[in-house]
Amino acid sequence: MDERSDTVFWKRKSKKQDGQEATGSAAEGAVDTQEEVEEETDSEETGATAGAAKDEKAAEGDKDAKAEKSEKDQKAEKDDSDDAAKADEDADTDAEGTDESADEDADTAEDTEAADESEESDDAKADAKDEADAESDDEPAKAAATDDVFGDEGLGEPGVTGPDSSGITRVRSEGVFEFDGTKHEVVSNTWIVDTGDDGVIVIDPAHDAEAILKAVGDREIYLVACTNGYSPHIESAIKVAEEGDADIALHPREMRIWRRFHGAEHRPEIEVEGEGSFEIGDLRVDVIALPGTSPGSVGYYISSLGVVFSGDTLRRGEPGKVGDSVIDYSKQLASIGEALLSLPGDTRVLPDQGPSTTIAAENANFDSWV
Cα angle at 148 between 192 and 248, to 5 degrees? Predict the structure, then answer.
């Protein structure tokens, strides 16, 4: 409420009554003149004059008494008039004070109402925020980037998706994966990561070398990085690397599986292990050990892009399998829980098959896998 200045009520003075200050001097002058006239009369009329003078004196006394009474009556009337004027002034003052008090009360009421409305508005905003926070906390799976171009459901059809805003392109290709005497038809993901200087990293080159090289285009291939030695992760590695004159990176414990598919003539140039890292172009790539589906399985984490390439260790909504088989489930869960789920919740998980997910979304699923 605005500050109000103190209000001063000025009292009005009462007006003077007409004839209010009249005295008995005029009556006294009239009596003196009468006495002088009576003293000049004949001595014979002395007795009568004396009697008349006596009567006149009595009359004079009556006149004086009347004059005095008149003066008292006038004074009383004056006092009554002053009292009435003062009462009027007091009534005006009280009325003005009442009006002022009423105005102040109205202002106070308006301010109180405005404060209440503001408080209610603040409470409503706080409640809305709490509800939004609660909804966010209760549904961590919503952290999965719904706008992620790689977040499509199912295994999908072969094709190329991207690049996305981080410069990542996905190439899906069909192939046959034979494991433990059983053949499996699969659709596998190959990831092409732009390094920011006209170069790329190719991760898990799968079944179609031509589709991969077409997606790379005129850019230079700096590295072909494999998450393990199974064919969906290495099948096109040699063709892609030779075309781009690039090195191949693989964990040393995957060499036996590699030789079964590619023979011993062409060995990977770079042996990667957990806790290692390398810089390519503008990117730093950290190697995460993920044993479980295979002894030398690894993941590639690029913090600047907020992504981790998890291979077959973690897929959307489930731990990955090798064909239809679980190899070492305890180790695989340990790799997921200790290595992957310790990453920031908004980190995107880009697996070897199926759509992308996030660390937060899979954190919510982890307890159901144990």
Answer: 15
pLDDT tens profile 15-59: 334 434 334 433 343 334 344 434 443 434 434 344 444 444 444
Bridge pairing between strands 307-311 and 298-302: antiparallel
d(CA 204, CA 188): 9
Taking the C-alpha atoms of residue 223 and residue 108, their distance in angstroms, rounded to an integer, is: 75
Contacts of 210 (CB under 8 A, 6+ apart): none
DSSP state of 368: G
Q: Among 24, 2, 102, which Cα is nearest to 69's? A: 24
> From the centroid of its chain, how far is CA 56?
107
What type of residue sits at position 97?
G
Task: Phi first, then psi: give them for residue 319, nearest 5 degrees.
Answer: -70, 145
| pLDDT (tens digit per residue) in 294-339 | 999 999 999 999 999 999 999 999 999 999 999 999 999 999 999 9
Distance CA 33, CA 37 (A): 6
For the packed helices 209-216 and 237-244, what is the interaxial angle rounded to 10 degrees?
A: 40
